[in-house]
Amino acid sequence: MKNELTILVPIYNEVESIGQFKVEMDKFLHETKITSTVLFINDGSNDGSQGLIEGICAENKSYHFIELEKNGGLSSAIKAGIDHCETNLVGYIDSDIQTTPVDFLKFFEFFPEYDMVNGIRLNRKDTIVKKLSSKIANAFRRAMINDGIQDTGCPLKIMKTEYAKRIPFFDGMHRFLAALIQLQGGKVKQIPVQHFPRFAGTAKYHLFNRIKRPFFDTFAFRWMRSRYINYSIKNKS
Questions:
Q1: Is residue 9 helix, strand or coil?
Q2: Is residue 45 situated within a structural domain?
Q3: Which residues make Cβ contacts (< 8 Å) with residue 163, sequence separation at least 6?
Q4: Based on the structure, what is the number of domains in the chain?
Q5: Does residue 61 sit within a domain?
Q6: What dihedral angle (degrees, nearest 10) is formed by the CA atoms of 111, 108, 88, 56?
Q7: % of the chain residues with pLDDT over 70
């Protein structure tokens, strides 16, 4: 099967970043040899983001959007994007341009051997609070579920769509995408990616989101994993 990619871009009040994000994404679209489309998922923005998104999509056939009725959070936005994906590969990147779409070019060599490629942010350009809370949350998650994923929060991922569509949907799902691929027997490759200061706007997650929520979500994942049912077809008529 020829590889084709849909890149999911969740948007929640990112009006200051969308224009520059398109500049960076256009660089990837120009360089990639893989047929690629970009799918904005507007997660209930109320700052004018939708108007910018519609303008981009009207001017360039590589860009598309879905607009959610109300803000449901990052997991909901990613799930909505996966549900609307029709290519055999599905990627994910944030619109804050702290990671670059061009790094996706390094991911393709690992397909089809692997079922997901997950970035590892090197030399993170975040605040001390953000880096520390992320380090604590990642260490706690690895100790509790032993998934071996170094940077589960890295917003630069590509998955085989057949695996992505089987991911159980729950609030906080986005924190465990690699572990949920592994739960299906999938193989995950981790590679270093670049990281940059936030271009504009403010982060939508504070200390409570970064430590307390992942703490409870990890226990929810452990409960779900203990009851997860996986099967494979041996034969059929």
A1: strand
A2: yes
A3: 115, 116, 181, 184, 186
A4: 1
A5: yes
A6: 170
A7: 93
- Could you tell me which of 96, 78, 38 has the C-alpha nearest to residue 62? 38
Q: What is the pLDDT of residues 48-90, one digit of tens each?
A: 999 999 999 999 999 999 999 999 999 999 999 999 999 999 9
Q: What is the pLDDT at residue 232? A: 77
DSSP 3-state of 232: coil
Query: How much is the pLDDT for 127?
Result: 67
Per residue in 14-47, pLDDT tens? 999 999 999 999 999 999 999 999 999 999 999 9
String of b and e for 190-213 (b: at least 16 CB within 10 Å)? beebebeebbeeeebeeeeebeee
- CATH number for 53: 3.90.550.10
Separation between Cα atoms, residue 69 and residue 137, nearest integer Å: 31
The pTM of this model reads 0.85
What residues pair up with 190 in beta bridges, in sequence order?
118
The three-state secondary structure class of 196 is coil
Question: Which residue, chain included where needed, has tokens 């159980």?
Answer: 168
Contact 118, 157 (CB under 8 A): yes
In a domain, 33, yes or no: yes
Let me know the angle formed at the C-alpha of 92 by 113 and 45, rounded to the nearest 5 degrees: 165
Residue 64: helix, strand or coil by DSSP?
strand
Q: Which domain holds residue 88?
A: 4-226
